[in-house]
């Protein structure tokens, strides 16, 4: 008898090839149910373009900035799809395939929307832009923060009166009694980490959630970007807004309008901006192993008074954050082209 190849060698090769094919099919079809009425349309979007950049914002003012800018060119065949109560808009920005969606306010809406986006479409990464309150006095209205870490600062344990100090920072209510500090039966809260679940890894408790390190490095090129200074024809900010790189952000389902707590967050955690969605978006991307970056424009001094109406500053902050996001999308496309060559 001649020398024969072991049957297990053949089977393993066949299984390996079949496994790769099945994985490709799963990735292609994504996770939208076969019985879903929009399954065929979603498959057509994925077949006709992509991988897409997911562009995510939370508020109507932020979406309006994109619509008014002319940056986004809708797909002529399928301009949008309604899924999970949201409108996913298909098109391009500067020749880059993009799907944008407005999440709605606060963490649950943000996480649900990004998960739906990742489940249905072929997404290479998430770019999130929007407005934020400032806790850092060195930031000015219209500035855009390119944050490297963000935390859920409303994730906390409420401690017993006179309880011992925990591992993470605490907020003692008695320290804010007025006119004098003293005992307070509300006692204190201890900030807590969140649980990160991701494919192929054990659960990990984290407090500071990182944006994608590679994308964050690329974003360093945006620091000299020119931003809009004038709110309207009659009023311009006293200084030209700037892109500020490498700051921390805070996310909570709270609109922060309290100077004492603003100062506490900056002094205790060194966070420079506060919002209601960023950490949820970053956490969802970390869970799915998808790159994510965040750009937040300063629209108000959390707990302070502005010189203009909140609506005017929100519009300017949205435009500046969008400007940075659009330039970043072009940057990652150029970086990918260089790598491919």
Largest sheet at a glance?
A: 5 strands, mixed, barrel
Estimate the global geometry from the Cα principal axes: globular
Helical content stands at 25-40%
Side-by-side strand order of the widest sheet: 6-15-14-7-16
Percent range for β-strand residues: 25-35%
Explain what this protein looks like in three dimensions.
This protein has 341 residues and is α/β, with parallel strands linked by helices. The protein has eight helices and 16 strands. It has helices at residues 7-29, 39-48, 60-69, 106-120, 213-219, 259-269, 278-288, 310-340; strands at 52-57, 72-74, 80-83, 86-93, 96-102, 123-134, 144-152, 156-159, 170-172, 188-191, 194-196, 204-206, 209-210, 243-251, 271-275, 292-301. A five-stranded mixed β-barrel has the order 6-15-14-7-16, surrounded by five helices. The chain has a three-stranded antiparallel beta sheet with strand order 8-10-9, with no helix packed on it. Strands 11-12 form a two-stranded antiparallel ribbon. Helix 6 links the parallel strand 14 and strand 15 (271-275). Helix 3 packs across helix 8 and helix 4 runs parallel beside helix 7. The termini are far apart. The model is unreliable at 1-12 and 14-30 (pLDDT under 50).
